[in-house]
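Example 9 (inverse folding). The structure is encoded as follows.
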């Protein structure tokens, strides 16, 4: 019955449920965040553990309204092989804001809490930005090539910011997530980059390189997620209105090369080249996987 409601009405109801779900859980999250400010390791560990549980409950609530009002046909492979064995690094291609809800739908409580690399500007979004700050999401301030050409003294600041953000997560069970493309895929961006991949933008390796450098011994594995929308890239309102009908997701676990641990991406040129080649290989495999998924 709920799925038979007109799409605009479903969109309104789901948007309200998303807002209500966020408001219900954000207040205890903010209260616990105050404990994190105390200079005691015990209180900080206690607050971080409970805040992680709150964030998982928030993701459960989103999954509930997606199931109640949506009618998505899921094509998922590799999910059953994933196990919560401790901290891990998670990567994915990026096409839509819907990607985040797709990943949370399948990975919540299966892995530690997903913490995303986020653009610095997102911290100013009301409620959302404060929640992400409280949960120690790593914020990154990216500079464009044009900006760096005008301000060469700012080179390296992006990576330094990522290093500080990752250092705060040491010792916390975490699934640290990064959209390696750094932005959502569009045909215009693909053409502007002259990307060598058919379905992907060029990957940015610096963020995860620093994550591995700062926390590599803590990561048990790399979880590689590939998302494909058979009906085309959805808008967020398509998810809210129940117009998202098909989603294909592939998960694969990959080892993180041991020789990458303890290396300096921004100071070791040989390592930087080696790491970029590894990421490019992962991306070539993902591009081929997306090609197969698009033809299925």
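The amino acid assigned to each position is listed next.
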């Amino acid at each position: 019955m709920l799925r038979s409601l007109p799409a605009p009405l479903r969109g309104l109801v789901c948007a309200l449920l998303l807002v209500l779900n966020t408001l219900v859980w954000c207040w205890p999250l903010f209260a616990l965040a105050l404990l994190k400010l105390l200079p005691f390791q015990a209180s900080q560990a206690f607050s971080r553990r409970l805040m992680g549980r709150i964030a998982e409950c928030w993701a459960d609530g989103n999954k509930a309204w997606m199931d109640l009002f949506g009618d998505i046909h899921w094509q998922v492979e590799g999910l059953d092989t994933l196990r919560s064995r401790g901290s891990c690094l998670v990567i994915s291609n990026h096409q839509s804001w819907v990607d985040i809800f797709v990943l949370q739908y399948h990975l919540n409580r299966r892995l530690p809490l997903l913490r995303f690399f986020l653009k610095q500007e997102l911290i100013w979004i009301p409620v959302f930005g404060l929640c992400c700050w409280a949960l120690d999401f790593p914020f990154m301030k990216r500079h464009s090539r044009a900006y760096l050409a005008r301000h060469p003294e700012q080179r390296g600041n992006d990576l330094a910011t990522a290093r500080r953000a990752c250092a705060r997560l040491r010792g916390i069970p975490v699934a640290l997530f990064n959209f390696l493309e750094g932005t959502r895929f569009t045909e215009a961006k693909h053409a502007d980059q002259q990307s060598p991949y058919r379905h992907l933008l060029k990957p940015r390796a610096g963020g995860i390189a620093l994550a591995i450098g700062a926390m590599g011994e803590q990561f048990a594995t790399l979880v590689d997620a590939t998302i494909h929308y058979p009906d085309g890239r959805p808008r967020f309102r398509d998810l809210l209105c129940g117009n998202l009908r098909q989603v294909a997701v592939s998960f694969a676990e990959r080892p993180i090369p041991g020789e990458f641990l303890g290396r300096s991406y921004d100071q070791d040129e040989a390592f930087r080249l080696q790491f970029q080649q590894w990421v490019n290989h992962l991306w070539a495999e993902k591009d081929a996987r997306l090609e197969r998924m698009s033809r299925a």
